[in-house]
Write a structure and sequence with these properties.
289 residues, alpha+beta, Jelly Rolls, 7-stranded mixed sheet, 4-stranded antiparallel sheet, 8 helices, globular
Length: 289
C-alpha cells in the first residue's frame, strides 16, 4: 500500500487548478488552516459550552446499515470526553455531515482567510456548502465516494484522521453497492473476495489538525479517526465534474443525485443566481447521508 501523495505547505490557485483539480489528483496542504481561530479553539468542550442546546444528528455504522439518532451537542460532547478518559465507556456515535455554519452562523468568524480562490466563483459563500464532522477516536466511515461525484476539500481542525484513498477506476473491483458504498475493507482486504483489488493503487495519508486534504471527483476514501476529531469539508463541482455527475445516469447514479448535479451544472454554466439555485439545492445540503 502506497503512502505517496503530494504534500505542500502553500499553493496558488493557478497551481491547484492546473495540477490537482483538473488533473484529478489528491493533495495534502500541510498546516494549510493551522492559523485559524477554529484550529486553535474548537474542541468538544468548546462546542458543549457554547452550543450545548443545538441538536445534532448522529450515526452509527453497523453491518445492517446506518443507525441514526439525535442529541443535544452538550450531551454528545460529554459522551466523547467520558469515552476518551475512561477504559470502559461505550463508544459514542459519529456526528457526520451536518451544515454547522448554517446551524450556528457565529462559527463563521473563526475561519479566517478561507481559501475561496481554490473554488469556482459559485462557491464564494463557502459556508453555505460546508458539512461538519465530530467524533471520538476509532470512528470509521467505510469505503465510499461522495454521492454527487463532487470534488472534496477537507479541513482537519483538530485530531488526526487516516484516509485510505483509491482512484475512481478502482470502484469496479471493490464490491460497489447502493451507488456510493463498497464492501471492501482497505484496512483488511479480503483478497479471496476481491481478487482484482490493486493495493498498489491505494494511498494512505494521515491528516492532522491544521491540514487541508483535497480529494478529486469520484475518489474512493475510507476514513478512521485516530483521536477525537473535529473537521469540516466542502463538496464542490467544477464544470467537468458536474457534467460527469449528470452523465453518470448511465452508470447507476440515483436520479435525485443526477438532478442535483444538473442544478450545479446550470449554476456554473449560466451564472444562475444563488438565491434561486439554493431553493432547489438546499434539500441536498440538509440531507444526512
Amino acid at each position: 500500500m502506497s503512502s505517496l501523495i503530494d504534500v505542500v505547505t502553500d499553493i496558488s490557485a493557478v497551481d491547484f487548478k492546473k495540477n490537482y483539480l483538473e488533473a484529478r489528483k489528491p493533495l495534502l496542504v500541510k498546516g494549510g488552516c493551522s492559523q485559524w481561530s477554529a484550529t486553535k479553539n474548537w474542541s468538544p468542550h468548546f462546542f458543549g459550552s457554547h452550543f450545548g442546546s443545538t441538536k445534532i444528528p448522529l450515526k452509527t455504522f453497523t453491518p445492517n446499515g446506518i443507525l441514526k439518532q439525535q442529541k443535544p451537542l452538550k450531551e454528545y460532547c460529554d459522551e466523547i470526553q467520558e469515552f476518551e478518559s475512561s477504559t470502559n465507556a461505550s463508544r459514542p456515535p459519529y456526528c457526520h455531515d451536518i451544515p454547522i455554519f448554517r446551524m450556528e452562523p457565529r462559527l463563521i468568524k473563526d475561519i479566517e482567510n478561507f481559501p475561496v480562490d481554490l473554488l469556482p466563483s459559485a462557491y464564494k459563500r463557502w459556508w453555505a456548502y460546508c458539512q461538519f464532522f465530530l467524533g471520538p477516536a476509532g470512528s470509521v466511515t467505510p469505503l465510499h465516494f461522495d454521492c454527487l461525484l463532487t470534488n472534496n476539500l477537507f479541513f482537519q481542525i483538530s485530531g488526526t484522521k487516516r484516509f485510505t484513498l483509491m482512484p475512481h477506476e478502482s470502484a469496479e473491483h471493490c464490491g460497489q453497492y447502493n451507488w456510493r458504498w463498497f464492501k471492501l475493507d482497505p484496512e483488511n482486504p479480503a483478497l479471496d473476495s476481491f481478487p482484482n483489488y490493486l493495493p498498489n493503487k491505494t494511498m494512505t495519508v494521515d491528516v492532522e489538525g491544521g491540514d487541508i486534504l483535497f480529494m478529486p471527483s469520484g475518489m474512493l476514501h475510507h476514513v478512521r479517526s485516530l483521536s477525537t476529531c473535529i473537521s469540516f469539508n466542502i463538496d464542490f463541482h467544477d464544470l467537468k465534474s458536474a457534467l460527469d455527475g449528470v452523465l453518470a445516469l448511465n452508470k447507476g447514479i440515483p436520479k435525485k443525485n443526477a438532478y442535483y448535479n444538473a442544478l450545479v451544472l446550470c449554476r456554473l454554466a449560466t451564472k444562475l443566481p444563488e438565491c434561486i439555485f439554493l431553493k432547489f439545492y438546499k434539500s441536498y445540503l440538509n440531507y444526512v447521508s
